[in-house]
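user: can you give me the structure for this one chain? tokens are fine.
assistant: on it. calling the predictor now.
[tool input]
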Amino acid sequence: MRIHLLAVGTRMPGWVKTAYADYAGRLPRECALDLVEIPAGPRGPNADVARAVRVEGERLLAAIPAGSRIIALDEGGREWSTAELARQLSDWLRDGRDPSLLVGGPDGLDSACRARAESLWSLSRLTLPHPLVRVMVAEQLYRAWSLLHNHPYHRA
């Protein structure tokens, strides 16, 4: 299975790249995590933010591999405990479809992405900076995998 992390933003700080690569690299090939960076919509002093979010949404939807299970990361989604995420991961592994996780940009995720998603996942009720989301997703997926395989990383 390949988990596709489709995230808006192409210029991330070094610490984001390093932390993401560390956790994504820990996952085995059976549960590989692939990051696809989506260019942000046009921004500027007089930018139409709604248009930028719509453009980002169109780019995200266009990048979804055919046949994927679509999960949108959204603050209005369902929060999963680590055990619940591990069950989700197990379901994804059995399903046979590669999951595509959609992460919006600094102004959120377009409603068209939420509408296409089979489920909405919220990492937290807190507002999180979008670069940090990719790191948190990678770490939580690794933690869920380690729980499923009785790896000592997850201590609960």
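assistant: here you go. The helical segments are 14-26, 49-63, 82-95, 111-116, 130-148. The longest helix spans residues 130-148.
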